[in-house]
Structures are given as structure tokens and as C-alpha cells.
């Protein structure tokens, strides 16, 4: 990846002149996708189908055709025949996929199609008796060329036989013409078309990453809370550790999560430490926010002593791996005032006119517990130090990083860091925690973040979910992979505060099915819906204090048995794992419902099995997004989008409750708090 | 222009790898315009205002700013400050213009704005009494930097005084803060902003051409008809000549046209010559179609002997120039079967299986009088020979070429030819006569044609005119300059056949005002509206026969005096010349009318006068597009688009009829066959 070779990037201060390009013999315009006008790679994951499109056309009346070509990292071309979608507007497209990770390229080749030109002309002239023998001889010559250009080893018998037939003046001319449409002729030409004046577009970069970059279920914990205990006699807490947190891992794995994400695990600053509920003064036993990183014990390359040692961390990572899960680490590049960098690297910070180091502020708001990093005073050493810190965690087996507030650091820095890590660890996944303007969200994604938090938490109405997911699944899918979180430790929307258990089921089910990556924050099972007055976050935010959720109370036989969504989440994750249709983003179709609160969508995919056979997997989700009232309505399905005819019926099995119905194009549903808020339906013959 | 240096283009058969680009320190995305995804130059003409836009944003809370920069052919940068159009979507834009012809570049520079950042923060903190002295000292340092970076020769007194004031602890803090908003401080910083981390986008090519490429009124003639005479006794015609055609030039100039366009002037083939009304067999005296080019007397580099000699042609060109007009020549790259190339360059044609040269066909239609050229058999010699032919006409003073059916030749060929001619004759203008699919129309334009015929003849309803002109004036204006023709010698739509004189006035007036270049075909004055049955072209098409229009009959005192639109056209062209607002394309605004047949639009521009002063020129056009009924309605004007307040009134002077009214935001109009179909209103104080 050339982008990682400039360290730090300096030549971007010089405008790059863009030369005028020569039009191809067969013009190919508007190749799509095109990320940042072709300046950044398009993205996919291994095995992911996506569409390459372009406008392809030519002068005169001869036939034109087009091929989408993916070149793999080893330099081998993979051809995908394109079909014309819109003849008037000259749009062609092909579904394509790359079968392994690495930096590929994609291009569109326009070409003149002598076989189609002859088919068209001869198909009119031969039946009309015009220039019959000449047309058949011209056909023979065209197919002779096709035969001559077959790759070595391809059987040309069908073409050779056709050439002889076309020249057999003893036979009926129309019969000779139709011989060109014999299945064996069409088959060999479909695989090896005669392409003339092949005119490639530019070859755009395509970064193919591992499937976890697109698909996975995340579970967020504050490790210090897992196993934390409160002593009522002394009124003090004992912190959880990596060892005690590891005891929670089987339960998380049992719910079917793929990634365990840990909030920052580093020493926490003591200077200006915040107390419970973001109070300005912490008590002597308050643990502080793990986002106020750095103290005498160390900074971003260290572990908070309360959590244990690097050995304990390694144990935690290994235990997660045993359970089939990866660990994601939170990278929050900001410092407490007592972070070691403040003395060792004062150039990493901004010094004010009075000689003090600038704390974070957004006037008139002040965040005196946080010193933001400044990447401009000494970019070279700042970049190198950040890279060193990341290497510490790479060396301890971490391959997923959740980046806190990346939009407060230069986009350029992330582009460089992610690319530089990818040189040696291409499997690394970075999740961007940016809740900001669309341009910045997009820029972080196209610069390299494999995943992005989204506006999902604030998209609750049917129309806004549809609009947003359509954007995510089409225009932005080539560079931004969405992660849907109904809540986080900082986000508790009014919808979740007031929607009751129905809202918590619904928003998890939608997150888990609308997009392939979703996540929840520990305690989601318990529907912790009380907000700190005046802000849209939980009261007693776990950022500032320990939280013992007494998980055992919700187990069978416990005092709160049945008052947890754990089994609902387990079911969602089981459905996700069993149904490949839910592993993809771009395969979504929305269906029409008369009720403006009932949303319906489906995902479908063709699955290749180990034995070489294929089957279609289709999941249909119907949800009432109003958590306050039960609704009855009719769902009108786009049957072709489900792979069926309009008059077909099918078996609809609700995977959440196990019921089956026979459904067709129009179906009655009843959804809401009075019953289940969501159908997740497996569509079968 | 690098594109002309590869002759013929060969390396376009190799996919150009597009490297990943590094994001700038301040990200700049989606620079617009962007032609063919940045592969072809954006276009403008000297002095033409257009908008450069981009998404510019940055990390954190500091202020961002942006500049559009045009670099002239001599390498000097011209800065245009951008303003933010949409804060949420991070879109910035600036009106820009290039003041001379040549290959420029354009780019957008994003930058960090320390002055604005300080203004924002200090503006909150100083009045609130927070960190007052530190904030004022930081301000002093920021303005010190601005002062230090002023270009040599710029007066820094205002900034120096401000720095002193900010540090003057004897004065009121708020007063010191507000000193930074003094007009002289703002003025020097507006001209010379303190720009930090300047981050340029790529520099895209911008081809600036002469104004005639955008603005002009064209008049088409068949030169052989002008002065042709019919002898009723012998029943034969005598062809007009360049000398007799030149006698028509004063009348054309008097009507105010800028360009006289001649249909092809070359020898006409005799083999398979067509007769009147496209009949397959010509009589011995039928002159044939000037589009069937080439005979024993010569080909595309020769003049039809009936028209005269090169000296006569030179006389015609010179006479037009004396009258203030340019001559446009029709380039129809196709051959009659007896064209000299058929024997001298058989490789320029396609040979069929039976050994014959392929004539034009679109099966089952056959055009046996035309051999299309084939540019693929021998591109090098074909390109060179076409270039040689063009040089003949360049050498005889032609600088405008109207290209017949360019969409039947490779786009690549035109791109090369136009660029190669521009190397020595950058003032050359090529008009593309392509009536075909949008992708091809766009590709010919972006490949280099300075002007394009359009779908105007088939856009008659109000909604389709609005939609089409909006597209032409915005999205496609950066690469395609429209030419509006209500009719041509091949196009006579039902609207013109049946719309009566009202339609002929209306369609000329709309063409002349909606876009800066329009054209009419000789005889438009006479409203020749009879079609050959079954086709949408004139009966007795001038392509196949002489036509003596007896112009003198329509002169004052003649038998048909007053039955011509000549004076109407003269008035239209006078208005166009007198009003710079009509010289531009991108300055159009549509206004609302309640009646779906009444269209209203305005164009406005600021005019720089020779004495250095400026004035605003505004033209408002209101037309009833239904030629069959008079309509009364209310026109609701977008007053700010006219440079006025919503409550203002103005003098509306109809330049066609000379009447004036006092108008405001809502105005009654009555338009149609019963009165004038069009108001062309000059808007004044």
C-alpha cells in the first residue's frame, strides 16, 4: 500500500496535477464504485458480492459489450461478464467478488462484439433474403476468429463445426444461421468471448479484507466491573481484574458474540480525576474514567495495575480465543494531566500563552481532566510513538481496535497508521467511534477504518431507517462498513429510556439484521434505561464508577430469573450465525407495508456448500418500530427480490418463536408490545 | 495538451493504475466540477463565472477555511475565497473565473484558520471573563503571525496596531477584543488571510476557450441555393456560387448573426446519387446531396466546381469577416462511392466478404450512396489524412467546424484531432452534430467538442425545457456547451409543422435566450413548415435540390413584405448583443408560474465597463409554450435571484415591443397567439 510509505506524509502540501486522459477506443465512463473520486480504494471482504457498473457505448451501429475485471494481488485477472441495465443511458453492470484478501484492482473493459454485430445484422438480412451467402460467409469468418482466439486447451469443436455449417451451401440458409445459436456454441463463447478493441478503464484499487471486517456481533465491557465487589461494611469497592472478567467470557460466548470489546485498560490519571456522574471532584476511592489515560504507572502502553499484568491480559485474550471470540481494544489517544508523555514528550501537546498545557475545551465547556494530543508540533515523533503503542498490543495478540473519537485527530494520521499496521498485520480491524458530520464520517472510513459507528441510535422511525440503511447498503458500502449500536456507555436515547422492554428487543433485533455488524454494551440484557437527568446517557455511568450487575441473579433459579434479554440476544446471534444472508450488507431489499410504523426488509444470498452444491438463504424481517402500540397491517412483498414469482407461496418460519405460516405476496401481521415486536422469518420453498 | 502528443493513441489499451492518494492535513473531498471523474478538463470561456465547490472539514473544534485556486497557463495562482454553503454537509464554494484562454488548472485548498479559531474562542471567553489576558495574548500572537506572513509591499499598519491594542492591559478587555473586528483589520486579512496547514486538492485541468465557444448566433445556408436560378424555359437550375452566396451575407449580418454555417462544399458523388426527397434514383440534372462527398473532381479537400474556386471561397470568408461574421464549415467524414479515397486509400473503408466496399446500412435500411470511413484498419494514415484535410480549411481561414454525425466515428479520433488542431489553432471551435444517447453526447463534449447540438428541438413542454436547461446550465455546463436549434435542414418537428407563426417566434426566442448559442437554418424566416409525408423533415429537402427562396419578395415593397420573421430575428439578436446577461449559460434562474404552459426565467450578470465601473444586467423572459391558445396567469418572481428584495418593485421593459410596466414579486401576464407569445424584459431599477 503506497500510502504507508511516506512517513509522515509531507508531499500532500503540493497539488497533484491530474493529466488529461485519452478516451479508449470503446469509451468507458463513470466506473462505479468510485471512492473519493478514485483517490482511495474501494473495499470489500473476501467472498462479498458487489456491483461494478460503468457507462459503455460506442460509435455507429456495431455491438458493444463489457467485462468487469478484478486483478488479484498476484496479478491474475478475474473476468465477470457485464449486462446492460439501461440501454438509453448506456449503463452496464456485473456482480463481482474477490475470493481472498489483499490489494486488488478493478476495472471495466469495453469492447467491440463482432459476434453480436453479426448476429444482429444476419438475423435481419438472412431471413429477408438479403446478401445471404455473403452474410453467412462473414459469420464463418467471425467464428473462425473466435476459434483462433480460444485459449490453449479449450475445446473448439463446436466453433469449428459451426464454421463448416455456415459455409455449407447445400443446407438451408436459415438453418445455417441458427446453428450459431446452438447451446454448445453459446457456452464456449460465453466463457471465451471474441473481444475486439478491448478498452480498459483505469484500474482502481480494491482492498479486500477478512470477513470479520464486515460481519460480527460485539459485546462491550468495562473489565474492571466484571468481578468488582462492593464491601458494604467498609463501603469500598474491589476492582475486577482480567482474571475475574475472564469468568464472564463463557456467558458472552454462550450468547453468541464474536468480539469482546474492552474500554481502555490503561492506568487512569489522578489529576483532575472525575467522580461519579461526571462530577468535577472525585473521592479518594473513585476509580476515575478509563478514558483519562495515563498516570505514574504508565500510559497507553501500560495496563492499569488493578486489572493485572500483561500475563493476565494474555490469559484473557487466550480465553476469549478458546471460546471463539476476538478481543477489541479501545484506543483513546488523549491523556490525563499526569500521563508520562506530558513530561517525556511535551511537544505532543499544545502549550498556551501562559506556558500551561492546553486541556480539552469547547468554549465555554472545559475538560480539565484531559489533555488532547497535538500531532502538528512534531508529527514524525508523534506518529512513531503512536505506532509503537499499537505495536505493544499487536504483540499481545490484539487485532481489533475500537478508536475513541478519531474525528478529533487528523484524518491523515489514521490513514497512515492503519496502512502502516496493515503492512505487517493486514488482518487488523479498526472501528471508528465518530458520531459527527457525514463528511468526516466518510473520510475516516475511506481513509482506512474497517468499520464505523453510525447514526443508528438516532434513527428510530421507519422512514429514516429505510433511508439510512439504503444509503449504507449502496452509495457508501464501497468504503464504509456500518456497525449498529442501540446504546453505548455514553448513549441512551429517549427511545430506549421510554420504550420499555419492547424497545430493547426491537432495537437489538433491527441492529442484528439490518447490517452484518452490530454491538451492545454490557447491561443491555438488563434493559438499564434510567438516564442521568438532563443528558442522554445512563445514570451512574460506568465510566466513572464500578458496576456489579449481579449476573447470577438472572440465571435460572436466581431472584431475577427471566428478567434478562440474554436468551433473546442468544437467539438473535444463533439466527445470524445459521443464516449467511445476514452476513452481508449490500443484499438488502425493503418491502412495502401500509403501516408507517411497520418496516419490512429481506436479505438473500446464494450459499456455496462444502460439497460444491449451492442453496439460497433468505431472511425476511418485519418489525413494528412503535414500541408503545401493537399494530396490525398488510405486508406486500417484492416477490422477485425473494427469488420467487408474484403468484408463488412459501413457508414463512419465524425463527424467534418457531411458528410457521404459508405466505404469499400479501400477508397479515400483528406486531408490538402485545405480542412479539419483530418477525425474523426464514423463507423456504 | 498532453492528449495530442500520442499519435494515434495506442497506450489506452493498457489499464492505467490509479494510486491511493494521501489525505491532506485538512481534508478536501469531492472537488466539483469534475469532468469524467477527473480524466478530462473542465471547460470555461474567458471571463465566464462558474462555481468551484468541495467538501472541506477538519478534526476537532478549530476553524477551517478554504480557497479555490486557479493557476493560469503562465503558472500564476489566482485565489478566490470560498464560503460555506452547507455547514452540516461541509460544502464550500466560490464563484471563479479565468481571464484569458489556455490550459489552466483549478484546485481547492483547505486550511486551518487560526484567526477564526481565536475569534470564536475569545468571543466566548473574554466577555465571560475566562482566561482573559491569556486569550488576548494568544490573539496578539496570532495577529503577529498574520502580520509576519503579509506579502512584501502590503501595508501591515492595521495589524501592527491591533497587536499593540490586544496587549494594552491598560484598556478594557472587551474593547481590545473588538479591535480585531476593525474594518481595516478585516480588509487586510480578507485579502491576505493567515492560512495554516494549507492542503490542496489535486489540480484538475481547466480549458479556457474564447467566448465564441459559448456565445453566438448561427445561420445555416446551403451555399448553392443562394443565388441559384431556375430557368422555366429549359426547366434547369443554375447553381449558386460563393460569389452569389456572398450577396446574401449583408442580409444575414443585418439580422445580427455571428456565424454563417455552410453545409458541405465539396464535390458530390455521382454513383448512387439520390434525387429529390431522398429518392433512390437521381435525374441527370439533380445536384445530389452535399453529404455524399467526393467525385472525380476531388474529396474533402476540394471545392465543388459549381461553387467556384478557392479564391471564391476566400472571398466569401473575407466578406463575412468584413461583416463581422465567421464562417463555419461542415465536416462530414463519409464518402460517395466515387470519392478519390476509395481508390487511393481503400484501407479507409470496410471490405465485405464478397470483396466489395461496405456502404452504410442499419439493417434492413441501406444507404448505398455513402461509404462510411473505417478508422481501425490503418489508424495512423487515416488520422493523418483527416488532419491534412482540416489543415486545408484552416489554411483558408476557417476556425469553426460543424461536424456531421461525430457519433459514428471513434470518440478517440475526435479527441486527438481537436487537441492536435488546438496545438497551433487554439481558437478553433468544433460543433458536434450528435443527436444520440446522452452518454455519447457527453463523451464527445468532454473529449473536446466546444459546442454540441442538443435535444432542444424535442423539448417543447415547460417542464421538460426547465429540466433540460437546468441540467445543461449546472451538471453538464463544465464540459458541454449547448447550441439550440429549433429546426435544421433535417429536423422539422410536429410542433413546428402545426404551431403556426407563434411557434416559429416562440422557439427562436426561447433558443436565443435560454442558452448563449443558438442557430437557425435558412428559411426559418419564412416559416417553412410543410413536411415530407411520414418523416419529420421538410418536403423538398434542400439536401437533394436547389432552393430559390426569392428573398427579395419579402423586402419592403415586395409581394410578400411583412410575411417574414427577419425583423423578429433581428430584434432577438439585437437584444442578445446589447445584454451581457444573455452571453452566459450558468446564470439562469427559473421562476414560478401557476400556468403549466407559461415558463419564466431570468439571467443576470455583473458587467465590468471600460471605465472600471460595474453595473448589473438582468433579463427576464416569460413565454407561453402553447402556440395554440392565449393564456393569462401570474408570474411569481424569485426576487433575490434578480438582485432585489421581496418587497421591491422595478421597471419591466419588454424589449420586443418597447412597453414598460411597474412590476413586483407577482405579476399578471397575457401571452399567446392572440398577442406576443414571449416577453423579453429588461429589469431596471
Shape of chain A: globular
Contiguous uncertain segments of 5+ residues of chain A? none
Strand order, sheet with most strands of chain A: 11-14-15-20-21-22-23-24
Largest sheet of chain A: 8 strands, parallel, barrel
Largest interface: A-B, 85 and 86 residues
Please state the CA-atom Rg of chain A, rounded to the nearest Å.
30 Å
| Average residue pLDDT of chain A | 96
Secondary-structure content class of chain A: alpha/beta
Number of helices of chain A: 16
Description:
2 copies of one chain form a homodimer. Chain A has 685 residues and is of the alpha/beta class. Chain A is 25% helix and 25% strand. Chain A has 16 helices and 32 strands. In chain A, the strands form 7 sheets. Chain A has an 8-stranded parallel barrel. In chain A, strands 30-29-32-27-26-25-28-31 form an 8-stranded antiparallel beta sheet. In chain A, strand 20, helix 11 (411-424) and strand 21 (429-433) form a beta-alpha-beta unit. The longest helix of chain A has 17 residues, at 132-148. Chains A and B meet through strand 1, helix 1, helix 2, strand 9 and helix 11 of A and strand 1, helix 1, helix 2, strand 9 and helix 11 of B.
Core attributes:
homodimer, 685 residues, alpha/beta, 8-stranded parallel beta barrel, 8-stranded antiparallel β-sheet
Short description:
Chain A is of the alpha/beta class and 685 residues long.
What are the SSEs and their pairings?
The structure is a homodimer of 685-residue chains.
Chain A: E1 28-32, E2 42-45, E3 50-56, E4 64-71, E5 77-81, E6 83-86, E7 91-96, E8 102-112, H1 114-125, H2 132-148, H3 157-166, H4 173-178, H5 183-191, E9 196-200, E10 204-209, E11 216-221, E12 229-231, E13 236-238, H6 242-246, H7 249-254, E14 259-262, H8 310-322, E15 326-331, E16 334-335, H9 340-344, E17 360-362, E18 365-367, E19 371-372, H10 379-395, E20 400-404, H11 411-424, E21 429-433, H12 438-447, E22 451-453, H13 462-473, E23 482-484, H14 494-498, H15 500-514, E24 517-521, H16 566-578, E25 588-593, E26 598-608, E27 614-624, E28 631-636, E29 650-654, E30 660-663, E31 666-671, E32 678-684
Parallel strand pairs in A: 2-10, 11-14, 11-24, 14-15, 15-20, 20-21, 21-22, 22-23, 23-24
Antiparallel strand pairs in A: 1-3, 3-7, 4-5, 4-8, 6-7, 8-9, 8-10, 12-13, 16-19, 17-18, 25-26, 25-28, 26-27, 27-32, 28-31, 29-30, 29-32
Helix pairs in contact in A: 1-2, 2-3, 10-11, 11-12, 15-16
